[in-house]
Design goal:
The complex is a heterodimer of chains A (about 120) and B (about 120).
Chain A: E1 5-7, E2 10-13, E3 19-24, E4 31-37, E5 44-50, E6 53-57, E7 65-68, E8 75-79, E9 88-95, E10 105-106, E11 110-114
Parallel strand pairs in A: 2-11
Antiparallel strand pairs in A: 1-3, 3-8, 4-5, 4-9, 5-6, 7-8, 9-10, 9-11
Chain B: E1 4-7, E2 10-14, E3 19-25, E4 30-38, E5 44-51, E6 56-59, E7 62-67, E8 72-77, E9 86-94, E10 104-105, E11 109-114
Parallel strand pairs in B: 2-11
Antiparallel strand pairs in B: 1-3, 3-8, 4-5, 4-9, 6-7, 7-8, 9-10, 9-11
Classes of the chains: A mainly beta (about 120), B mainly beta (about 120).
Chain lengths: ~120, ~120
């Protein structure tokens, strides 16, 4: 499978716990995005990487959230001290570089439930 | 700030009917527009991408049009089938090359095709 993959697909945690999600983009896609989608809404942008550099962060990304892409390949999104309001689907997308990079390809998402 | 609106929020049609989904955006300075399909609890599948210089794109029974100056796009689905039942999302990519090219999504149209 050469698409975007995310792990885990589902995560249930208790309020106050830390969680970490992983995204593996399509091979050779140097641009990687994280979005968050709550029930009945469209996805909202969280952060963007070009290679290993995190170039943009949304105001939605509070200081409890941190994202990394250490070698410019896979990325992780960590949420510390989770709150019930963090319950959402976390989507990762990747895009090819340059002129070929018109389309964003999305992974299956990680659904987080905070109890 | 770009805002994307999709009307209607939900739509139910009998099998075989042709239908049109609408998407409007407030800032016409876009680079492209993508239509996605999302099945319940799943990630996003890209259906069609229209560049800002294009008027329409077709894929099978799907046809997407773009009127950038008026800030509108439509997704036409011909001869609908029960398997088309899903939420359809449109998303715009900004034309400003200084941005992360993050997508701004509408809230989607939930389509149900009945037998």
């Amino acid at each position: 499978d050469t698409g975007v993959s995310q792990d885990p697909r589902h995560k249930i945690t208790k309020r106050g716990q830390n969680v970490t999600f992983r995204c593996d983009p399509i091979s050779e896609h140097n641009r990687l995005y994280w979005y968050r989608q709550t029930l009945g809404q469209g996805p909202e942008f969280l952060t963007y990487f070009q290679n290993e550099a995190q170039l943009e962060k949304s105001r939605l990304l509070s200081d409890r959230f941190s994202a990394e892409r250490p070698k410019g390949s896979f990325s992780t999104l960590e949420i510390q001290r989770t709150e019930q309001g963090d319950s959402a689907m976390y989507l990762c997308a990747s895009r090819a570089p340059g002129q070929r990079g018109n389309e964003q390809f999305f992974g299956p998402g990680t659904r987080l439930t905070v109890l | 700030k770009q805002e994307v609106t999709q009307i209607p929020a939900a739509l139910s049609v009998p099998e075989g009917e042709n239908l049109v989904l609408n998407c409007s955006f407030t800032d016409s300075a876009i680079y492209n527009l993508q239509w996605f399909r999302q099945d319940p609890g799943k990630g996003l599948t890209s259906l069609l991408l229209i560049q800002s210089s294009q008027r329409e794109q077709t894929s099978g029974r799907l046809n997407a049009s773009l009127d950038k100056s008026s800030g509108r796009s439509t997704l036409y689905i011909a001869a609908s089938q029960p398997g088309d039942s899903a939420t359809y999302l449109c998303a715009v990519r900004p034309g400003n090359t200084g941005t992360a090219s993050k997508l701004t999504f509408g809230t989607g149209t939930r389509l149900q095709v009945t037998l």
